[in-house]
Each structure stands twice: as C-alpha cells, then as structure tokens.
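Incident log, structure service

09:12 report received: a user says their structure output differs between two submissions of the same chain.
09:20 pulled the input from the user's history:
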Amino acid sequence: MSKPEKSLLPEGAKARQVYLSLRDQIADGRLEDGDSLPPEQKLAEIFGVSRVTIRRALDALAAANLVVRRAGSGTTVRTSGQAGQPMAMNLATLMPQLVEMGQSTTARLLSFSYGAAPEFVASALQLEPKEQVQIATRVRSADATPFSHLTTYVPAGIAANYSENDLATTPLFKLLELSGVQIKDAHQSVSATLAGPDVAEALDVAVGSALLSLRRVVRDVNDNGVEYLSALYRPDMFRLEMPLTRVGDGSARHWQPAIGKPPGEPA
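09:34 re-ran on a clean worker, output below:
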C-alpha cells in the first residue's frame, strides 16, 4: 500500500466509518486492484448512510490514492504501483524473524530519556515503585515507508550498557543480549487501537486509522523483567501469522499452534 494521506479523516463520524471500512478492505485484499466499487446509491444502502456521506468517504479514499473516481465510470480500487505485501511475522518463529527485520529495515529514534517507570510498566516488570527506566520511542521503516511505532521501557541498570546511538542502529533485544542479559521468555498480547495525532504523523496515516497494538514483557533466566514493549503497527504494512496443525483423535481432535515451523512451511 502507498502512504495514506496525512490529512484528517473525512468530516463526519459516519463518513469516517465508511472510509475506514473500505480502506481496511483494500488493505487486506478483499478489494483488489482494478475492482469496481458499487455505485454511490448502493453503497449508501449497504452502509445505511446518505449519498453525501458516501461521497465524502470516497473523496477521502481518492485523496489517499486508494481509489480512482471517474465521472460516468464509477470508482475503481487502485493498488498498482504501491508498496508490496505487508511484512509478515510468524508468531512461532518470531525472534529469528526480528533479527532479520532489524537488518533489513531502518529505525528512527524519536525520543530517549530516563524516568520513573509508569505504574503499568512497574507492575508488568515487577519493579520497585518509582524505579528508573530508560524510555525510548522509535519508528521502524521498510523501503522508506514507516510501519511500526515502538516504545520500550528497560530498567536503568541494564540500559546503562548501551548508548542512545546504539538504540538507533541495533534491535533492542540484541542490545540486551550484548549487555549480558540471558533472555528466557516473553509474554505478549495483541489487540487493536486507533492512531492518535502524534502516532498518525509518525506512521504517515490518517488520525483515527486502525492500528495493530502489541504489548510484550520480556524476562531473563532469573525471571526478572528486562523489557516492556508497547508497539503499534500499520495493518497495511505488517501482520502477525500463526501456523496451526490438527492433533488428537475423534471428538478430541483440535487445532494446535505449530510451534517451531518456519514461515511458509505448511502445518
């Protein structure tokens, strides 16, 4: 997908909902390059809104270079000439893929500071109240297109082993290992959120755009919390995948994550 228009979403809550729905259908491939959208009146019936609302949403999609509108021939999806398929991360082999991603993408450091750990970070990492942490925010890009907004929190005693410049050039988990941290495991959760003004500007998306939200807590071999990651991803540029395999017999047969299978290997 190309970089969406940085401007605000179309005026009106209903127009925004239509815009985001159609944009997401284009982003995930349900609407492909060259597909014709239904006429305005039909779209108005589908979404239960007025034609004026549909027109605002389609105008915003055209401004974002996602559709082409021609009088007399309707509205056509346009994805040709845009960036390739979203970057895919396999949950079963995530860490090796992060190494490769760190080598094939670039990071821009937006902020870097030390301060007391926010309550939610202190609780997740099991830190002492007001314990100092390093707080860094970066944007990672592929082919000059930003796809992730990353904020990390690392206990100050660990973070003292690397510099601000190191953080701008090297993946954090690799810096942790170079600092002597022996990572044991991590727990992460995935949800969705909307882009606020600052994040929208950093990721080149419209304010209010849907984003993939990931939270990760990393622990060492002594079960100490060593990193809290808050990551936001553009769904048109990034996706998480998990291979599944069928196991068990009879009524107990079920789907199970195929842990350890490399990306692309059939489950």
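09:41 both user submissions now match this output. Likely a transient worker issue. Closing.
09:42 reviewer note: The longest strand covers residues 183-194. Residues 137 and 151 are 4 Å apart (CA to CA).
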